[in-house]
Amino acid sequence: MKIITIDKNNIDQEHICCAIGNDKQNQNRAQSKKDWMKERFNDGLIFKRFDERGKVFIEYMPIEKAWKPIIGKNYMVINCLWVSGKFKGKGLSTQLLNECKKDAKTKKMDGIAVVSSVKVKPFLTDKKFYLKHGFEIVDSASPYFELIVLKFNKNARIPQFTDNSKNATYSNKKGFTFIYSNQCPFMEEYVGLLSEISKSKKIPFEIKKLKNHKEAQQIGSPFGTLGIYYNGEFKTHELMSEKKFEKFIEEVKK
User: Fold this and answer.
1) Same domain, 101 and 21
2) N or C: at which end does the chain have fewer Cβ atoms within 10 angstroms?
3) Cα separation of 238 and 251, whole Å?
4) Cα gap 91→74, rounded to integer Å
5) What are the start-end ranges of the E strands in the chain?
6) pTM of the model
7) 100 and 10 housed in the same domain
8) Which helix (H) or strand (E) holds 249?
9) pLDDT at residue 8 greater than cutoff 90
């Protein structure tokens, strides 16, 4: 297997790993992600994957333009590092991380930052992987996020979560708030489903689609692509099935 880079020259011909089905639903999902990526390439977005049909990829970009509520300069931020299924246990995650390290050093950056969690959570790479590769925990945000950094320059200033993300709150205090972006190909469809369920249960809701990195840095959740708030308080970043979300509703209403 070899690693290939997805850029503006080949993105229309290559798959982007997250949604790779040939059915219309997955094609629409993938297109939403590709449209988001096309607008980010000029911001320094890098997307690399193995030349396999599966979830074996890494995505990262400079912290100044990252779609996460992190304050810092001259760091690379990993948006997502995903190796799944039959590809696990072969050292592929390390190879992908090494690509990020190489790019960051070539650009003379001071280090790499990534968001993980206190305990293992879906859609967040286990922090043990990063700690094994020399990363350190430098900050935290309620209720379970951690910012992990690998420094190349020991004198560089350490990135931090924004105060807003640490407080884990949003201005809408009535019902649900779904804050998301098309950085993940599933979010448009998923947030639509959650809003319909909320509507059917007569729960007020607000949908906030992030339009640019400045909005994401101001009001996005540490996860970046999704934040679910209830009565103004952050609850989760997780994608849930319809049944699980209905159960979740009963839990947060208690």
Assistant:
1) yes
2) C
3) 15
4) 28
5) 3-6, 46-50, 56-62, 70-71, 75-83, 111-117, 136-141, 145-151, 160-161, 176-180, 205-209, 226-230, 233-236
6) 0.93
7) yes
8) helix 242-253
9) yes
At 24-47, the pLDDT tens digits run 887 888 899 999 999 999 999 999
pLDDT tens per residue, range 183-241: 998 899 999 999 999 999 999 999 999 999 999 999 999 999 999 999 999 999 998 88
CB 176 within 8 A of CB 193: no
Same domain, 133 and 10: yes
Please count the residues of the chain: 254
The mean pLDDT of the chain is: 93
67 contacts: CB under 8 Å, gap ≥ 6: 79, 181, 183, 210, 213, 216, 217, 220, 224, 225
- 17 φ/ψ angles, rounded to the nearest 5 degrees: 75, -45
The answer to whether the beta carbons of residues 42 and 83 sit under 8 Å apart is no
Residue 91: which of 51, 129, 47 has the closest Cα? 129
Same domain, yes or no: 95 and 131: yes
